[in-house]
Amino acid sequence: MKIVIGSRGSSLALWQANWVKDRLAAAGHEIEIQIIKTSGDKLQNALLAASGTKGLFIKEIEEALLSGQVDLAVHSMKDLPTDLPEGLEVSAVPEREDPHDVLVATDGPSLQELPRGARVGTSSLRRQSQLLALRPDLKIVPLRGNVDTRLRKLDRGECEALVLAGAGLRRLGLASRITIWFKEEDLCPAVGQGALAIEVSIKNTAVREAVAPLDHRSTHQAVRAERSVLQALGGGCQLPIAAYARHDSGELHLAGVVADPAGTRVLRAKASGKQEDPEGLGKRVAKELIDQGAHELLSHAELDLK
């Protein structure tokens, strides 16, 4: 059948959409990609964290899904709010790329080797808070734009280093720009980072069945656990919340982090549990973070943005 994929127009978003397109085409379907400009694409000069809108890179695409303009959407999972519009579901989560963050530095030094007061570019409060916890002397420079745009800003000397998702650089063939990979103990990844979300209308049974073979069960379980932490904390993807789940020895292991933007206080929680109950595991980690004062930290972070 003919399937229309809704996607943003950035090079990374189109890589992701084409990855899904190729696999559906190999199964015999006729695939078209329709580019949809989102609010996040239009607000290039606004700080993500201060925008006050959940799903900045999602809303218009979901509207196209609900209206039937497109049949499925391919998102970066980390951009997808935990509360989906009624009538939509994440029908498949393909196998995840490495979810860790990376440092891209002009002259190739590690984080600890950057000069005192070095400018590090990121628009993420999650990254900012954990970076400042490691190096309080760093100057965080808010950078917007796609991966290519940020790399150009680095090369022009607007900062000494960038922190980006390693998955995006790998997918775009830019892995050679990576200086170091961060361990999750130092810089815990964003919820769902490195994973794709294939979103479909619940009523569209034919498309749901078509994408079902693309679902990777272990990745889907890990992402469900991470998103459960985010949902239980009541936060959006712009707040300094991190979670990373991995499978080991038949169990799901989950780490969660909440920090204040200045990096002066970082809360951490870990738990392990059955793979079949990722949401329950996420709630346990979120409760431990809440008991440590996560809601207070997140409230202050939200106030600082206003």
CATH topology assignment of the largest domain: D-Maltodextrin-Binding Protein, domain 2
Could you estimate the helical fraction of the residues in percent? 25-40%
**Approximately how much beta-strand content do the residues carry?**
15-25%
What strand line-up does the widest sheet have?
2-1-3-10-4
Sketch the major β-sheet: 5 strands, mixed
The coarse silhouette is globular
CATH architectural label of the largest domain? 3-Layer(aba) Sandwich
How many strand segments?
13
Element order, helices and strands? EHEHHEEEEHEHEHEEHHEEEHH
Structural class label: alpha/beta
- Rg (CA only): 19 Å
Number of helices: 10
Number of domains: 3
How many angstroms separate the termini? Answer: 48 Å
In CATH, what is the homologous superfamily of the largest domain?
Periplasmic binding protein-like II
Name of the CATH first level of the largest domain: Alpha Beta
Low-confidence runs: 48-53
> How much is the average pLDDT?
92
